[in-house]
Write a structure and sequence with these properties.
The chain has helices at residues 4-15, 25-41, 46-62, 71-87, 110-123, 140-151, 164-174, 193-206, 223-234, 250-259, 281-288, 294-308, 326-338, 342-347, 355-358, 364-380, 384-388, 395-405, 409-430, 434-446; strands spanning 98-103, 128-132, 154-156, 180-184, 210-216, 238-242, 264-268, 276-278. With 463 residues, it is α/β, with parallel strands linked by helices. An eight-stranded mixed β-sheet has the order 3-2-4-1-5-6-7-8, with helices on both faces.
């Protein structure tokens, strides 16, 4: 999860209040000290940390918790609301035809972000195109082209042309049928006059609807200076923060952006084109505090079902009515893969992400995903009859499947046991009425943390 250390520390601090109905001044002071330490470790500016912690302390001592609300949940709500206010709103980005210009220093992740954003718009039903105008960095053209091929989006660039404005001109002509055109620009190791002049020339010709600044999360509090400098040069309508999966300084970048009166449009959370998400402050902070993010989860589930596809028009509801086969299990695994890294998915589920994830070893999710890949290899070595009726797989068939897949026999037995467990769970769902299902969902939400555990895009408290 992004900013994992910050989230884990905040959750640990709040858990110390578990079981208390009232808060003493000492309780509040201890929580505030821990929050200060957590935010400072995440590279948030000292002045912001002090303002935030003072506000949390004042509210925790002066506001009466709603009837029936525990002390922990009362403070949790205050921390949630203050953190949402700290990182600000999401950039206005309507799903309509537009041209977007990306700016940023070299190494910030602009080229990768351009392809990721194009992929994101394509999943929203629009036709995107990337125009690569970076003539400064060797390899920019080839990298952009390859990323766009992976994203399955239109690409325009010219590795022989040295004038970025001319590339932009031709690119706009070649991509006139696209709904969303994303113009990637050159970067430099620092914001110098050459870069500013080039940006101004391209922006003046392209006349974009929005300028987005791409910032590496590792820059921390330095994000404030960059956002102000680029804003003064060409104007910034929003920010994309990249590489949030691998830095402890992300808190500094998030807070610093808001200090400049900028807003955040997207977060980059990995290396593949799918590793991007629209920034939603409620859901982001909800995940950080271990309360899930049902809106983001629902989007990933919908996307995964669309991408999984099947020649036989497989409907997941069918397995709720009949027999659960290994074919069904393989389709579910493919859908899970399409949802992204397993640890990110689990973080979005109320009651499973956050606190539960804190208890797992660091490599637990890597092991799990590796096991899923092994299972797919094993299933590739099984016959249609075995996939449709795993009960017929005995010792002799297990040995044959293991030899054919190159996996140990133990892995084949693990697959069969996993199938039996999932089959038992499916049968439990089959026996549920609508009332039983609603009670189960309500219980899941209540486990997600204070006030209700995540209600779509409304945040965990239903605000």
């Amino acid at each position: 999860m992004v900013l994992d250390n910050l989230g884990s520390s905040l959750r640990g601090t709040l858990d110390k209040l578990q079981g208390k109905s009232r808060l003493s001044e000492e309780d509040v002071d201890e929580v505030v000290r821990e929050i200060q330490r957590s935010l400072l470790q995440a590279d948030v500016d000292v002045d912001i940390v002090m303002q935030l912690s003072d506000s949390i302390r004042t509210r925790a001592l002066e506001e009466d918790p709603p009837a029936g609300t525990s002390a922990r949940d009362h403070v949790l709500r205050i921390v949630y609301e203050e953190l949402v206010a700290l990182i600000g709103d999401s950039t206005d980005l309507p799903l309509e035809p537009q041209t977007i210009l990306l700016a940023g220093l070299q190494g910030s992740g602009k080229t990768t972000t351009a392809a990721k954003m194009a992929w994101w718009f394509s999943k929203k039903g629009l036709r995107p195109a990337v125009i690569q105008t970076d003539t400064f960095r060797p390899g920019a053209y080839e990298q952009s082209k390859q990323m766009c091929e992976r994203a399955e989006v239109q690409f325009y660039g010219d590795s022989d042309e040295e004038d970025p404005v001319e590339i932009a001109r031709r690119g706009l002509e070649e991509t006139e049928d696209a709904d969303v055109r994303i113009v990637d620009t050159s970067g430099r190791s620092g914001l110098n006059e050459e870069l500013i002049e080039e940006l101004k020339e391209i922006e003046g010709f392209v006349d974009p609807d929005r300028n987005l600044l791409v910032l590496d999360a590792a820059i921390g509090q330095g994000a404030k200076d960059q956002a102000q400098a680029f804003g003064d040069a060409v104007g910034i309508d929003g920010v994309v923060i990249t590489k949030l999966d691998g830095t402890a300084k992300g808190g500094g970048a998030l807070a610093a952006v808001n200090e400049t009166d900028s807003t955040i449009a997207f977060l980059g959370t990995g290396e593949t084109v799918q590793d991007i998400e629209r920034f939603e402050p409620n859901g982001f902070i909800s995940r950080l505090l271990g309360m899930g993010d049902l809106k983001q989860l629902a989007e990933r589930v919908e996307r995964a079902m669309q991408e999984t596809g099947d020649e036989d028009d497989w409907n997941p509801e069918d397995m709720m009515k009949g027999k659960f086969t290994l074919l069904d299990m393989r389709r579910q695994m493919q859908a899970m893969n399409n949802m992204g890294p397993l640890d990110q998915v689990l973080d979005m589920i109320p009651g499973i992400g956050g606190g539960l994830m804190d208890q797992l070893p660091d490599d637990a999710m890597d092991v799990t995903q590796g096991r899923m890949r092994d299972f797919e290899v094993v299933m590739d070595s099984m016959t249609d009859e075995e996939l449709r009726d795993p009960r017929i797989v005995g010792a002799e068939r297990t040995r044959r499947i293991a030899r054919g897949s190159g996996k140990p026999e133990e892995r084949v037995r693990e697959l069969l046991e996993q199938h039996r467990m999932m089959e038992r769970m499916i049968k439990q769902f089959q026996g549920m009425g609508d009332g039983d299902m609603q009670r189960m969902m309500k219980k899941m939400q209540q486990r997600g943390g204070g006030g209700g555990g995540g209600l779509g895009g409304l945040g965990p408290f239903g605000d």
